[in-house]
């Protein structure tokens, strides 16, 4: 396994963190951890996400082999999204992060203070 230094500007691990650590990527991966879902079901489950942002996030995750898109043989045609094997390997860390955020939301408050 290659060693990476996330403090270096050109570190591949830093690029990966930027991909998977934004709010919508975490929430979408966590949501798809429940199993394959249609676009509309995923959108309805994720409060506050716009169609545009969900589409952008799903495309980004799909382009990076974390999510796969499957056209369903239904009338009208439907689309289903699911985690790939790589996406499933991200589910554990994302779940831990999501649970931590849920458990500590009250302590963190509105984020208005600088904490220092």
Would you write up a description of this structure?
The chain is built from five helices and three strands. It has 116 residues and is an alpha+beta fold. Strands 1-3-2 form a three-stranded antiparallel β-sheet. A hairpin with a 5-residue loop joins strand 2 and strand 3. The relative contact order is 0.13.
Task: Tag the structure with descriptive keywords.
116 residues, 3-stranded antiparallel beta sheet, 3 strands
Individual helix count = 5
Detail the poorly predicted runs: none
Apparent shape = globular
Write the element-wise H/E pattern from the N-terminal end onward.
HHEHHEEH
The average pLDDT score comes to 87
Biggest sheet features = 3 strands, antiparallel
Number of E-state strands: 3
Terminal residue distance: 36 Å
Helix content: 40-55%
* Rg on CA atoms, Å: 16 Å
Widest sheet, order of strands: 1-3-2
* Beta-strand proportion: 5-15%
Oligomer: single chain
